[in-house]
Structure formats: structure tokens, C-alpha cells
Amino acid sequence: MDTLVQSVSTYSGIGIFDLSGTVGPAGSSDTFAMYLFTNGAEKIFGGPEALDAALGLYQSSGESILGLNITDISNTPDVPEAKDDVADITDNVGEPEKADAEKFYSDIEKALPFSVAEEKKNEAAFADMYVTSAAERFGFSETEKETLTRDDYTARCRDNLNILEGDSFSLRVPVGAGELPLLMDRILRVISEGGTFEDALWEQIDRYGQGSLNGNTDLFWIDPESGEVLGAFKYERTVEDNEWRTLFEDDSAVLTAADDLASFIRYAVFALADDDPERVKDFLEHLKNKQAYADYARFILDLKSNADINGVMELIKANLTAAGIMGGNGSGGDSHKNYDTLTPENELKEILESIGSEEISDGTI
After folding, report:
1. Are 108 and 292 spatial neighbours (Cβ–Cβ below 8 Å)?
2. What's the pLDDT at 327?
């Protein structure tokens, strides 16, 4: 058994004495000892003899402490200095979750019919087609990310949410983990069936109900008349106190999703006569495909005690599979059976070919 002891010395001329306890036979390999030293023992207890008589713990003769030979333990390291920082105790918390998250992304990438590296290049190729949503006004500057306290950050988030909740012109649309490409498909389907953009948004809202804020989704505020994405609010996960600044990354992730959604709406719903149908088709496909490598940390690295991380991971895979992004090779299992399937190819082709024609209403975001 390894033995650890802190050096015993004197301080200001006052002897430092041992208040110790053991478990097991003294001197055996099964002995466990806890050492507590005090530099007030001589004055308080009257010296080692008083301790010996009162507690039966102190041994004043010989070269041992509770049966352990001092020469055997004199070279052991000092006891580490105690700290109040919780991170000293929990600095390894979250490592298994991070490993699971890495495997989650790896599993998705293996099931994709395209290269993530190649698809990321399309973000630059389509840079001129991306729309910056009005939701970006609620973002945080780099300076704010460095200087805001957690209390300030929380207050800002609540203020932003109150502003969005006070908007009577937009619809609050919940979107679950990995569900954005399915929402894109649903919008296309509703419009192809003769419905309006607002009808499509209400269909999505009705999937979750119109009650209070849903705790398992991102939220997007969308003007059904203009198609503008006015705001976005992330799914709020729980993190370690010393890692709260990672929540800024969640804000960036949901704003990226808001820009993707605004870009999709611009070209799929509010097309212009001079839009290039073939390029639009490729761009819409890209907007869907990139959701396979979107930042889902807010959903899969949540430390809430009731968070079903594995269930969320499977849900994301199921949503991506149902949207036709991941291959149907078993990676999503049967868990996607309750979700909409990809818009039939002929319907999608018909919608895309109509973009730029007079059948599509003109509009801007």
C-alpha cells in the first residue's frame, strides 16, 4: 500500500503534534492512516503525554508513527495544496461525452454519399448566394465574448428573447436537432401541393404545439409575408461553470442555421426571375448537405441530469437519413419511420424548374 505523509516540524517554537487515526493492524500492508497535525496541541492538550492518555493515538517513543517506520516514508511527496476550484475535482468530467461526440460525427461522415471536405468548399463557391439573416443582430461581438461576465451574458440572452417574443408579426418556429433539412423539404412539399409558405411554417409549429418555449429545439422567428428570419434562439444546454463561454459557440451555431434557413427561403420560396435554376438547385442541395456537419454541440454535450444524449444523437442521424442526406444503410435504423421522407424527385424537379418563371411570386428578404 502506498503511504503518504506530510513533514512534521515546528512553527514559532510551538511543537506540531499528530492527531491520527488508523484502520487495520499497525505496521501491516492493510493499514490506512489519516494524519492531522496541529501547532496548538502542546498548549491545548498539554503535550504528547496528554494526547496519548486522552486519545491513545500518539506514540512518543521509538522511530515510528502508529507502527509505520519513519525512514520508510520520509521521502514521500508532500500532500497537494487544497484548492476551492471545482475544476480541480471535475476536470475530467465530459471527456467520455466528447469522445462519443467525435464518434457521432465520424459515423455520420462514413454514411454520407459525399465528401465533407469537398462539400465545405461549396460554402465559398456559393458565397454570393448566401443571405445574412436579420437574426445576426442578436449576435455577440468578439470583444463581448472576451469581456462579458456570465451574469451579463445570461441577462443579454433573456433580453433578446423578450424582444423576439414581443414581435407580433413573425411566427416562432421550433426546429429540433438535425431537423433543418427536413423543414426545408416540408416547405417545398407544402408549396408543391398548392399551400403557402405560411402554411408550411404552421405545419412545423403544429408538430411541437403552440404552448410555451420548447426546451428541446432551436427557435426561429420568421415573417411569413417577407420570409425574413428575424431572430434565432439556441437550445440551452448545461455546461460546467468554468466552460460557460462555450455557449457563445452555440449562439454562433444557431445564427449559422438562421442564415442557412434564410438563404433557403430566399431561393426556394421568394425566387427572382433572373435566378439561375441550375445554380439554385445545386445551392439548395448544398444547404441541406451541410447540415450533416453542422455544430450540434448544444444538443450532444449537454450536462443536464435528464439529457438523453444517445437518444439525441440517434434522432439527428434519423433526421438526416429521412432527409436523404445520410444513406439508408442502417446508420439511422428504424428511428426515422415517423419523419417525412424526402420530397419525391419529380416534385422537387418541378419546383426547381419553375424557379425564375412567372409562376413564382417575386419577393425579397
Report:
1. yes
2. 81
Task: Say what the pLDDT of residue 250 is.
Answer: 98
Q: What is the pTM assigned to this prediction?
A: 0.66
Q: What is the pLDDT of residues 220-261, one digit of tens each?
A: 999 999 999 999 999 999 999 999 999 999 999 999 999 999
pLDDT at 361 over 90: no
Question: Nearest-5° angle of CA 287, CA 126, CA 105?
Answer: 40
Per cent of the chain over pLDDT 90 is 58
pLDDT top residue among 17 and 158:
158
Print burial letters for 144-164: b (CB count within 10 Å at least 16), e (below 16).
Answer: ebeebeeeebeeebeebeeeb
Q: Exposure string (b/e) for 216-248, b if CB count within 10 Å is 16 or more?
A: ebbbbbbbbebbbbbbbbbbbbebeeeeeeebb
Adjacent-strand bridge partners of 233: 219
Assign 72 a pLDDT band (cuts: 50, 70, 90): very low
Distance CA 247, CA 252 (A): 9
Classify 242 in phi/psi space as left (phi over 0), alpha (psi -120 to 50) or beta.
Answer: alpha
Q: What residues contact 328, with CB distance under 8 A and at least 6 apart?
A: 321
- Cell numbers found for residue 27: 505496521
Question: Contacts from 269-273 at CB under 8 Å and sequence distance 24+?
Answer: 269/187, 269/191, 269/197, 269/227, 269/363, 270/226, 270/227, 270/361, 270/362, 270/363, 270/364, 270/365, 271/355, 271/356, 271/360, 272/356, 272/362, 273/356, 273/357, 273/358, 273/362
Amino acid at 1: M
